[in-house]
């Protein structure tokens, strides 16, 4: 008879022997499925189901039932024991980072790599993070449409179950705030974004077979694009993409955009409490890192699906993505506690090490793939010296064309105008993007104050109060601005009067000899001030 050749997901599923023979307990095209009542084993065969294979289905109701006690406990801890609450917060941060890292490992496991034990067994156990669960214990084999629908409905079931439990908990003595409910599901959606994306993108993960057809990598008995079953899976996948990654990222983007505005409003504290799951993990000035992290997690999930036809690129692109994330995290240092920052760095470095160690196992049997990798290596080696030249050129241009660091320098007498200058800086920051110099905020070394005026300031605002000229530093700042050609903008205040000629001639009597020496050491003479 005629034979048609398909790729197996795992060589252990299709052992050597007669054409079409499968491992024990397996059936279907490319030995993709287990018989009903059987579950996949690590040796490629299918064994009769027991309690161990049913644990994902037994775990769901237990998780739903346990949520409310956990929320109550969290509320008590956060309200009564601050030290314990901080410790719980740190543990949750570290655990959440670990969950995200494990999902990245699951994405890496889907690469076209010849994994070997014990690494293979460990990675197989992470299939729960992409909802790649064996349903053959509970439903007939080859019913992939029902399996995929159950995967898409997993989170809505959890949402409905927790909502019902929360509704019943409101009738108890210790009520659970709805804010805890929102934060709980916010954490779930952000933490499992990679897993949800891996799951919904699975129907697009089609690989070409030697016979010219394409099949889904994880369901090798489903022929892509030409069968009604796959078309139905694609339609469901489009709904899942809109419902999960697109909706989640749209919500996070909107919240991140509105967060600074809401925080300055009268309901700022309420907003901070309601969206603590997104912003509470990071330092206030790095509130946007949650959005960056979510986009990173989505890209990690996209790599196995979009590069399934070019497996030679999968490891390299994933390495670049992890490197960018590690560099960004090191520069921004976004997490609220240092332990979380160090832990994130270690986990990212661990993923890079795993990619480097797994790269020799990458399946590069095709000559075209090897040629493609060779071209990419040549391009990278060509770009390295160019990057160095660009960096050197940028440094030279920056030195030759220095830019003013501060748009405005506030020259003032602290006792007379300190509060006014603080108000000016707050207002300018609220409605503009100008960098304002206020000595109480910016200056660590007073000896550089005149250098900042002359070289790093675009204009100087002199806040004219009665005692301004009695402060040696203020007179020196205005003199430095005049000598360097920096525009001076006067801001008149009540009580200020311009000094007459007699006051100007006696100006040196106002300052001590030490203060006059300080001005002279910076190249400012009494004649310059007069």
Distance between the termini: 107 Å
Can you summarize the main beta sheet? 4 strands, parallel
Q: Order of strands side by side in the largest beta sheet?
A: 8-7-9-10
Distinct helical segment count: 21
Q: Could you give the count of β-strands? A: 10
As a whole number of angstroms, the C-alpha radius of gyration is: 32 Å
Folded structure, characterized:
- This is TIR domain-containing protein.
- By secondary structure, the chain is α/β, with parallel strands linked by helices.
- The chain has 3 domains: 11-365, no CATH class; 366-401; 408-529, Rossmann fold.
- The protein has 21 helices and 10 strands.
- The strands form 4 sheets. It has a 4-stranded parallel beta sheet with strand order 8-7-9-10, with helices on both faces. A two-stranded antiparallel sheet has the order 1-2. A two-stranded antiparallel ribbon has the order 3-4.
- Helix 15 (414-431) links the parallel strand 7 (408-411) and strand 8.
- The longest helix has 36 residues, at 228-263.
Short account of what is shown:
58% of the residues lie in helices and 6% in strands. It has 530 residues and is of the alpha/beta class. The chain has a four-stranded parallel beta sheet with strand order 8-7-9-10, with helices on both faces. The protein has a two-stranded antiparallel ribbon with strand order 1-2.
């Amino acid at each position: 008879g005629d034979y048609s050749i398909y790729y197996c997901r795992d060589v252990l599923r299709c052992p050597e022997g007669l054409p079409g023979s499968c491992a024990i307990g397996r059936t279907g095209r490319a030995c993709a499925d287990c018989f009903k009542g059987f579950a996949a084993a690590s040796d490629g065969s299918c064994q009769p189901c027991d309690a161990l294979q049913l644990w994902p289905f037994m775990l769901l109701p237990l998780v739903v039932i346990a949520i409310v006690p956990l929320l109550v406990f969290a509320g008590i801890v956060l309200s009564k024991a601050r030290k314990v609450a901080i410790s719980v917060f740190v543990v949750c941060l570290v655990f959440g980072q670990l969950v995200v890292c494990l999902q990245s490992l699951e994405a890496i496991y889907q690469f076209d790599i010849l994994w070997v034990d014990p690494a293979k067994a460990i990675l197989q156990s992470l299939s729960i993070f992409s909802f790649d669960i064996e349903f053959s214990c509970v439903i007939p084999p080859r019913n992939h449409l029902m399996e995929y629908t159950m995967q898409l409905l997993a989170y809505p079931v959890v949402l409905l179950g927790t909502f019902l439990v929360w509704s019943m908990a409101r009738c108890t003595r210790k009520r659970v705030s709805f804010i805890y409910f929102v934060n709980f599901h916010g954490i779930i959606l952000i933490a499992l974004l990679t897993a949800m994306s891996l799951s919904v993108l699975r129907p697009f993960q089609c690989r070409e077979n030697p016979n010219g057809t394409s099949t889904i990598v994880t369901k090798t008995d489903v022929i892509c694009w030409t069968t009604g079953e796959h078309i139905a899976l694609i339609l469901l996948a489009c709904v899942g993409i809109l419902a999960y990654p697109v909706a989640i990222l749209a919500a996070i983007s909107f919240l991140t955009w509105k967060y600074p505005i809401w925080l300055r409003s009268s309901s700022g504290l309420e907003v901070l409490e309601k969206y603590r799951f997104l912003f509470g993990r990071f330092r206030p000035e790095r509130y946007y890192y949650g959005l960056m992290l979510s986009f990173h997690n989505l890209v990690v999930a996209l790599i196995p699906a979009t590069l399934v036809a070019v497996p030679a690129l999968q490891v390299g692109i994933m390495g670049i993505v992890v490197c960018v994330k590690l560099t960004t995290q090191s520069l921004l240092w976004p997490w609220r506690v240092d332990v979380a920052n160090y832990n994130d760095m270690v986990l990212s470095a661990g993923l890079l090490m795993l990619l480097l160690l797994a790269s020799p196992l990458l399946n590069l049997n095709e000559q075209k793939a090897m040629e493609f990798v060779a071209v990419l290596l040549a391009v990278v080696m060509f770009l390295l010296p160019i990057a160095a030249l660009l960096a050197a050129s940028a440094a030279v241009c920056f030195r030759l064309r220095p830019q003013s660091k501060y748009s405005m320098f506030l020259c003032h007498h602290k006792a007379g105008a300190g509060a006014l200058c603080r108000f000016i800086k707050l207002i300018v920051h609220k409605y503009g993007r100008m960098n304002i110099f206020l000595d109480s905020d910016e200056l660590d070394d007073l000896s550089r104050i005149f250098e900042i005026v002359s070289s790093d300031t675009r204009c100087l605002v002199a806040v004219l109060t009665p005692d301004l000229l009695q402060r040696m530093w203020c007179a020196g700042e205005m003199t430095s601005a005049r000598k360097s050609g920096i525009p001076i903008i006067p801001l008149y205040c009540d009580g200020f009067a311009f000094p007459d000629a007699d006051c100007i001639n006696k100006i040196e009597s106002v300052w001590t000899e030490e203060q006059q020496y300080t001005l002279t050491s910076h190249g400012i003479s009494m004649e310059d001030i007069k």
